[in-house]
Amino acid sequence: xxxxxxxxxxxxxxxxxxxxxxxxxxxxxxxxxxxxxxxxxxxxxxxxxxxxxxxxxxxxxxxxxxxxxxxxxxxxxxxxxxxxxxxxxxxxxxxxxxxxxxxxxxxxxxxxxxxxxxxxxxxxxxxxxxxxxxxxxxxxxxxxxxxxxxxxxxxxxxxxxxxxxxxxxxxxxxxxxxxxxxxxxxxxxxxxxxxxxxxxxxxxxxxxxxxxxxxxxxxxxxxxxxxxxxxxxxxxxxxxxxxxxxxxxxxxxxxxxxxxxxxxxxxxxxxxxxxxxxxxxxxxxxxxxxxxxxxxxxxxxxxxxxxxxxxxxxxxxxxxxxxxxxxxxxxxxxxxxxxxxxxxxxxxxxxxxxxxxxxxxxxxxxxxxxxxxxxxxxxxxxxxxxxxxxxxxxxxxxxxxxxxxxx
Length: 407
What we know:
There is one protein chain. By secondary structure, the protein is α/β, with parallel strands linked by helices. The chain is built from 14 helices and 16 strands. The protein has helices at 3-17, 63-76, 91-104, 115-129, 143-150, 164-173, 197-207, 229-232, 261-270, 272-275, 282-295, 299-318, 338-352, 381-398, and strands at residues 26-28, 35-39, 45-50, 108-112, 134-138, 155-159, 180-185, 187-188, 193-194, 210-214, 241-245, 255-259, 331-334, 354-355, 358-359, 370-373. Helix 3 packs parallel to helix 11 and helix 4 (115-129) runs parallel beside helix 5 (143-150). The longest helix is centred in the C-terminal third of the chain and has 20 residues, at 299-318.
């Protein structure tokens, strides 16, 4: 086999389909979020506004978060020094897990290096703990959940997105004595729609199934203390395992599960993704714990975030742009073609200093390629106005319906 030729074929296919991913080199400007500096291909620098970041609330720039990280850095140094089992558990890790357990009103929490690893490690380990486990998974679950379920060696059932009737039919068709778990999300990140948490919880209770809820795009942003949609809806106590991230609303890095003490102990003891991974640096754990603690009482920031998203959606709708609006903070504008989406992204960056990354297959289905905007409380009215005017100008300039955007 000619290995270089095979690589060329694979990469050429992505280029031909307009799906080749281009990384934009930026440097975030401390204290000026969401502004950043972009290094252009010619080496020059341009100030831009980031409209596609996952630092949803700007906590990655919060002075108290930064101060906690500086203090931990001076006290401990750069890294953790090992896995959690071998010298890598510190007071900073324990403090963060305590904050997260308190956030979700659970007995325990377990932190991982990312929410992806938390999902993968937990879902792939559960069949070891519950032999014969059947996992029922929403068809639009995140790739990390799909991967964990795929390789766990257990049985799985895929139910149509948010289709509770289909889920019921699948549950009814299986052995009532078999252990079961339903895995789903509270906010699905590409369309911004909500999972039917209450209906799924009721089904789980009826059929004796455990529940696994991914709140990655909701923690910090929904509920009176920022614990997510399940907290907002008064359902958190009826969820068995909650997955969350520290890299989005909390602005730092890492992922976790919050659950019973016995479940956390079992996952900690059996999951290779936890056992054999170097733990988060104490500096990161310190910043994350501070961010979680601050957001428990910062309802004003959450309200400003939701207001910003509503304003942007209202203005884009007024222009007649094809946005998806399910009431969450995520603002997708459907373009429907990978080349067009990339061209729109390039023009916004080059001509207007607006950075939004194109979202293409396989992240979203073919034909639904999009620009996905994530407004924050720190995107001010002037930034929003600039974005809206830029999109209006580009949509008209492109005559996007059938334009050749490559010309």
